[in-house]
Amino acid sequence: MTKFSNHFLDNNNKIVKTLPFLVLFFYIFYAFKFNQYEIIFMDERIIIDDIYNVWLFDDVFNRFINIENNFFKKTLILLTEFSYGGDLRYGRLWSNIFTIIIGPFSLISDETTITAARIFNIAILAYVFYFLSKTFLDKKYLWISLITFYSLPGVEFLNRFPKPETFALLFMAIGLYYLKNKKYYFSLISLFIASFLKINFIIVLFVVLVFIFKTYNNKLELISRTFFISIFSLLFVNPILILPPINVFGLNIPNFYSKYITWLISQGSYGQENVFSFSYPALWSKTISSFYSIPTYLNVLFLLLLIVVVVLVTKKSFLKKDSYSLLFISIFIIYMLFYMFLIERQFIWYINLPFIFLVLAIYRNLEKVNLKDNLVIFFLILTSFSGLANNLFEHNKEKKFIPNHEYGYAGIMSVEEAINGVDKTVDEIKKIYMSNENLNFKTVYWNPNLFIPRNGVTYNEDFFIREYWDSKEINEILNESDIYVTYENIQIDGVNKKEVGSYILYYK
After folding, report:
1. Are 137 and 363 in contact (CB under 8 A)?
2. 92 vs 331: CA distance, rounded Å
3. What is the DSSP letter of 504?
4. How do beta strands 464-467 and 483-486 pair?
5. What is the pTM assigned to this prediction?
6. How far apart are CA 294 and CA 301, in angstroms?
7. How many Cβ atoms sit within 10 Å of the Cβ of residue 189?
8. Which residue(s) pair with 467 in the sheet?
């Protein structure tokens, strides 16, 4: 075992050095698959639409529909998109960076834009892993630690399409770098930004703040500066919050603070009925074990192995008086307790963040020639190989075109057929507009679960197709739009209905 583990942890091993690059190439290669706008997942459309809203000067929320001056209108669109967009849950920093860097690709094609955004996201995550390893680990563990990072839960998901988690991880890594270099205020700025990008990073912020507080001499100064740093970071991520709610002299500025809090609450609850439950740990244990391909009957044993590894690493951290290892293991434990007892949704990428800290703590305390470490090394080998294989397998599976039959897609077997179905629906919408002069909203509401087109990207007409997330009745929807496109077959009087393949169009 010792001989094998030494070989596994040998940083000069050619396989160990090459594998991270092969994995990176794998994710980049798949970034070119299914990159047509019509078929991308709704979560990916968030960032892609933000890019197009700016680069197409698209007043997607009809805020300035009555403004005739084109230059003034475009200016207002830019200002509102960069400062507010459509919601505040992830802030605007993540969106704005992608809009500035990836936006020029929108002048080429939708495929180029989507692929560039994916590759940029993949590059950020790769850099985060490399940066964390370079900052906190011995250089002899650089390449093998990268393999371990790529084997963690949720890595496949984070590499599939751009999410704010990746960008938050970057700021978290920067914050930890400044922490190590004792530049505490720069560290707090970065960690506050990460937390405002994705609220679950607030646990990292809190633990680091306690860590700094214990060693900082002037604690009153730290508290006061931290307060102003939090305000600065919040406004940096969400610039619109600089505006207070005002309703005087015809000027009506909404309460963006209320909107922001609403978004935060919705992120945390999301359909969860019970805040706390003793049943959640069993579910999470099953989810984690399943990710690492552990048979069901060994779930408990694997969980015990994980606990033993955490205890051993914690003990060694205390003996070495390694404050950073203790910090990392504390963050891991707090996160896992939080998810195990308070979060019902078994989304595997949720636990990517705590497992990053566990990996850092393990490698900081690893002595490859010490027999006592064989259990920890066994855990590393097991999780590295099984986790990496699972991530690669799942990514390959997710990159296969499998339309959802619940939405009437039983007859669609390829991307070409899917896009053709969307195009036929758009053509039918054109005909409806040509034969109905009373339709003057120039807005078509479209069920976001369906494959969806976009004006200026997949078609060019004087009507705009918008995602519709509300749950109003058909008559109410058609009081705000000309046409509603969905997969639901609804019987209603006084409303015209046309079917185009999997799509059903309703209009008055």
Report:
1. yes
2. 27
3. E
4. unpaired
5. 0.93
6. 9
7. 21
8. 446
Q: Provide the β-strand partners of residue 148.
A: none
Which pLDDT does position 492 carry in this prediction? 86
Question: How far, rounded to the nearest angstrom, does the alpha carbon of residue 268 sit from its chain's CA centroid?
Answer: 14
Tokens of 334: 């707090």
- Alpha carbon distances (Å) from 339 to 103, 196, 306, 330, 381: 36, 19, 16, 14, 25
Greatest alpha-carbon span in the chain? 82
Percent of the chain with pLDDT over 70: 93
DSSP codes, 484-499: EEES-----TT-EEEE
Which tens digit of pLDDT belongs to each residue from 144-189? Answer: 999 999 999 999 999 999 999 999 999 999 999 999 999 999 999 9
Amino acid at 491: Q
Residue type at position 184? Y
Beta strands of 344-495 (E only): which ranges? 443-446, 464-467, 483-486
pLDDT of residue 248: 60
Beta carbons of 327 and 208 less than 8 angstroms apart: yes
> C-alpha distances in angstroms, 333 versus 145, 219, 314, 336, 453?
20, 26, 10, 5, 45
